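Structure in, sequence out. Go:
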């Protein structure tokens, strides 16, 4: 797969405990994107944050949360990502999805060692 020039970055902000059909939502989203042939996705676990309800989620020992913030970042060509946005929107019942244009400098697999 080749990506060059302008692409889209999708960011999906959810909670660690969010579920989709009995599995963690972040895992379900990554599996969904992989099945659809999207270039790649990265899941990042936050140490602190809050969302629309202003409920603080934190790793601080006195307020330890079991529902830490999770961010999924996805980059691909615009047409490919726009093609899956409605399905992603249906999966995220409590969270935030954003889009922004990005310039892709390089996207390549690791070279096989001889």
């Amino acid at each position: 797969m080749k990506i060059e020039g302008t692409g889209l970055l999708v960011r999906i902000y959810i909670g660690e405990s969010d579920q989709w059909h009995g599995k963690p939502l972040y895992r379900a989203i990554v599996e969904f994107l992989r099945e659809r042939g999207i270039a790649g996705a990265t899941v990042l676990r936050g140490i602190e944050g809050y969302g629309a309800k202003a409920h603080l989620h934190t790793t601080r020992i006195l307020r330890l949360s079991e529902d830490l913030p999770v961010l999924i970042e996805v980059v691909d060509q615009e047409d490919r990502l726009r093609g899956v946005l409605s399905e992603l929107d249906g999966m995220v019942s409590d969270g935030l999805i954003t889009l922004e244009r990005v310039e892709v400098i390089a996207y390549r697999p690791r070279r096989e060692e001889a």
